Amino acid sequence: MTSGMDSVETHLAEVLAAIRPLQPARLDLAAAEGAVLAEAATAAGPLPPFDNASMDGYAVHASDVAVASADAPVTLPLTDQIPAGDGRALTLAPGTCVRIMTGALLPGGADAVVPVEWTNGSRERVLFYQPVPKGNAVRRQGDDVTAGAELLPAGTRLGPAQIALLAASGHGSALVRAAPRVAVIGTGNELSEPGSPLSPGRIWDSNSYMLAAAVRKAGGVAERHRVGDDPSAVLAVIEEQAAAADLLITSGGVSMGGEHDVVKAALSGHAAVTFRKVAMQPGMPQGIGAVGDGLTPILTLPGNPVSAFVSFCLFGLPALDALVGLPPRALRRTRAELTAPVRSPEGKRSYLRGVLDERAGTVAPFTGQGSHQLGALALANALIVVPEPVVSMEAGEAADVMSLP
Amino acid sequence: MTSGMDSVETHLAEVLAAIRPLQPARLDLAAAEGAVLAEAATAAGPLPPFDNASMDGYAVHASDVAVASADAPVTLPLTDQIPAGDGRALTLAPGTCVRIMTGALLPGGADAVVPVEWTNGSRERVLFYQPVPKGNAVRRQGDDVTAGAELLPAGTRLGPAQIALLAASGHGSALVRAAPRVAVIGTGNELSEPGSPLSPGRIWDSNSYMLAAAVRKAGGVAERHRVGDDPSAVLAVIEEQAAAADLLITSGGVSMGGEHDVVKAALSGHAAVTFRKVAMQPGMPQGIGAVGDGLTPILTLPGNPVSAFVSFCLFGLPALDALVGLPPRALRRTRAELTAPVRSPEGKRSYLRGVLDERAGTVAPFTGQGSHQLGALALANALIVVPEPVVSMEAGEAADVMSLP
After folding, report:
1. How many other C-beta atoms are found inside a 10 Å radius of the C-beta of residue A200?
2. Is the alpha carbon torsion for A265, A266, A270, A275 positive or negative?
3. Parallel, antiparallel, or unpaired for β A125-128 and A74-82?
4. What is the complex's ipTM, to 2 decimals?
5. B8-22+180-323 CATH
6. What values do phi and psi take at A240, rounded to 5?
7. What is the homologous superfamily of the domain A25-47+143-177 according to CATH?
8. A353 close to A47: Cβ distance less than 8 angstroms
């Protein structure tokens, strides 16, 4: 590692140390999608809530049809029919049967459901052509979840199946850490809005769009802001957003150089923000700290778009996870054979853009590896990780590869 | 495969055949996140738009400092400074230098940027201690993307990096197939709203929550509806939603049995909807077709929650992809060693819930494999796929495993 620089791990540890999990909030189920349980969810009652039929058929006392056969069917009079949702407290008299639908409450005394195919399908006097095992086509109360059981542990991210389980157990809401609200703040006098004409010396802003999209894709709520190279204006936006958001992510203005490093200049009075060089490429200049009365965490990412993107993957995603009380999500890692040689500066860990072909076990690095070169990034599906001491790798060598989220 | 049933592949083919890609629409960049390009995006101009500095330093004529050394530095007077965003059309006079910031427009004539560390850092008379290669720290106009080049092909899903590339190239909007609007329609008299008290014989609705969450997670826009076991009411909701949505997904009411199969009953007059048994478990009863004047595709999924979930993975996700003009996304497939035996009905392909441990190369099937058992589904991360002819597999055998989305 180059002297005067910190490792990726050191910076990540400081990022995580700067973040406290959000206050839990009770959200309606639909609003809780993608959020993270702040406490274990338990079942107030059993699931299913009552014995019920797992298919359409006839509810019987199994003993009544024990001697049934195709040659000598047993005949039982049909006394009722029970559709799903029927709440009557029925009891099945011995020597009778009822028609019952999938999901319907099994009448008292009944201990099996006979498929229609094993009968003559009558609506009056039903002929049973074979015996039925006790418990056939019956779902017992609580055979999915028993009353009081833990449904999901704290820390569970609520995807479709988890939402379904909560709903099925009657939970109309859940205590969760919700999607973090992230203020994305792009800086730079050179930035123009995409879709507007471009005057000389200026470029279209891409970082604020990219980072906001990345936050949303990762499950956060993002708001874009853009501000010029005026430290007091930048500070004003930062302070305003510190009060409104759970995390601030800036891009640009953190180089090692001069008076034009506007984010550094804006935060120069804030002892709680640390700027450092991280031994990585792209993405060397990084900052982490807290701003505002609520000590809202702020990540200051470099301004080159590829640097900002890689930095978000390494530090922004873990920050979002920490806000909802989770350890950093693991980006999928694999090893793959390089299809072309790569270079890396000594003492820095490189994250080179490439196309991973998992089936072939290969990864093809792009030629355009400049930290401004979005063209390659937009076609990449993986980052090739070249360790700090390594300055070059040959085609055919196996490299560490990290899939892009 | 059991006779009278169709294969998963046959049904999937009919699902895909029922769907035409959505009409493309031009969306603002932020609204286009996650949407799919309906045409290739091209670069109107080069990217970067102009030669610029890749770091803070001094712009020079490289030939002016060719003989510089630490012992005999070359001195050049500083004539200007150029911050990023500065649009002046400057020319660098031979024998002079200018201070230049990262991203700033390189003045005419200059052919290299010298890092501050190679100089005395002066703001007036700058001492250069070493020569600089031509092109040093200069990003050439178009070295990321040339004017007129294809940025992204049609069919690209717009993630953060793709949004960034479009933005950087000045695109304020994109012609895309947007997130499909999906009407999720749960059916059944037995369904109660989670959070409300449960009367006898009823259960809390989970399918509409689950399917809506699954649609949203897959990039669609979902609206939940619920309707009782009244064919005319079901038909009314279907017809209303056919006019409003791009895809209808129902759950329940498609069993093989009686008059209580409300979705079947509601659509009985619709020749354009086909109901069939698919040789899979869970999820045998399926339907696909088109409803309404616009022939809106409709997927009728079974009502057991696990059946509905598995059906959505197999048929719903491909339907959503087809709506945006893409081939079905590939769920990650792998092979893993069973930690416990599993059973499967002959002639049906089973999709059993399990926990895949990729590192260990194992998959642990749950004991609760009933199609109503959400408890196991909510803890699963994978489906174990047991082929149609296989009725049992032993612990230690290698099984096909499909990761859940």
Report:
1. 12
2. negative
3. antiparallel
4. 0.95
5. 3.40.980.10
6. -65, -45
7. Molybdopterin biosynthesis moea protein, domain 2 (3.90.105.10)
8. no
Alpha-carbon distance A113 to nearest alpha carbon in chain B (angstroms): 14
Chain A residues inside the 8 Å CB shell of B375 = 47, 144-145, 149, 151, 165
Q: Does domain A52-139 have CATH number 3.30.70.270?
A: no
Say yes or no for a CB contact (<8 Å) between B204 and A169. yes
Max distance between CA atoms of chain B, in angstroms, equals: 99
Cα separation, A247 vs A289, whole angstroms: 10
For residue A166, give both structure tokens.
């909560």
Span A327-338, average pLDDT: 95
Extract long-range pairs of B10-17: CB within 8 Å, 24+ residues apart. Answer: B10/B278, B11/B276, B11/B278, B11/B286, B11/B288, B11/B315, B12/B314, B12/B315, B12/B318, B12/B328, B14/B274, B14/B288, B15/B288, B15/B297, B15/B299, B15/B315, B15/B318, B15/B319, B15/B322, B16/B318, B16/B319, B16/B322, B16/B328
Tracing tokens 């994109």 back to the chain, one arrives at: B174
How many CA atoms, within 13 angstroms, populate the side-chain half-sphere of residue A384? 32
The residues spanned by each domain of chain B are: 8-22+180-323, 26-44+153-176, 52-139, 333-403
Tell whether A105 lies on the interface with B, counting CB pairs under 8 A: yes
**pTM score, whole prediction:** 0.95
Q: Is A323 on the interface with B (CB under 8 A)?
A: no
User: Which two three-digit tokens encode residue B367?
Assistant: 């004991």
CATH superfamily placement of domain B333-403 = MoeA, C-terminal, domain IV (2.40.340.10)
Q: Which of residues 290-319 of B touch A (CB under 8 A)?
A: 303, 305, 309, 312
B172 touches chain A (CB under 8 A): yes
Q: Would you call B392 an interface residue with chain A, using a CB distance cutoff of 8 Å?
A: no
CB contact under 8 A, B191 and A85: yes
Helices (H), B275-393: 305-311, 317-323, 374-377
Element (H, E) at B343: strand B342-343
Structural contact between residues B127 and B119, judged by C-beta atoms closer than 8 angstroms: yes
Domains B8-22+180-323 and B333-403 share a fold: no
Query: Which residues from chain B sit within 8 angstroms of residue A171, using beta carbons?
Result: 194-195
Show which of residues 20-39 on chain A sit within 8 Å of chain B, judged by CB atoms: 29-30, 33-34
Asked if the Cβ–Cβ distance from B30 to A212 is below 8 Å, we say yes
A133 Cβ neighbours under 8 A, 6+ residues apart: A62, A112
User: Contacts of residue B205 in chain A, CB cutoff 8 Å?
Assistant: 167
Give me the tens of pLDDT residue by residue for chain B, a chain 405 residues long. 667 899 999 999 999 999 999 999 999 999 999 999 999 999 999 999 999 999 999 999 999 999 999 999 999 999 999 999 999 999 999 999 999 999 999 999 999 999 999 999 999 999 999 999 999 999 999 999 999 999 999 999 999 999 999 999 999 999 999 999 999 999 999 999 999 999 999 999 999 999 999 999 999 999 999 999 999 999 999 999 999 999 999 999 998 665 679 999 999 887 689 999 999 999 999 999 999 999 999 999 999 999 999 999 999 999 999 999 999 998 999 999 999 999 999 999 999 999 999 999 999 999 999 999 999 999 999 999 999 999 999 999 999 999 999
Nearest CA distance, B202 vs chain A (angstrom): 5
Question: Is there a contact between A193 and B172 if contact means CB atoms under 8 Å apart?
Answer: yes
Provide, as residue numbers in chain B, all residues whose Cβ is less than 8 Å from the Cβ of A54: 370-372
Looking at residue A376, the DSSP 8-state letter turns out to be H
Q: What is the DSSP letter of A312?
A: I
Give pLDDT, residue B161. Answer: 98
Per residue in A162-190, pLDDT tens?
Answer: 999 999 999 999 999 999 999 999 999 99
B305 backbone dihedrals φ, ψ, rounded to 5°: -60, -40
Residue A367 touches partner B, C-beta closer than 8 Å: no
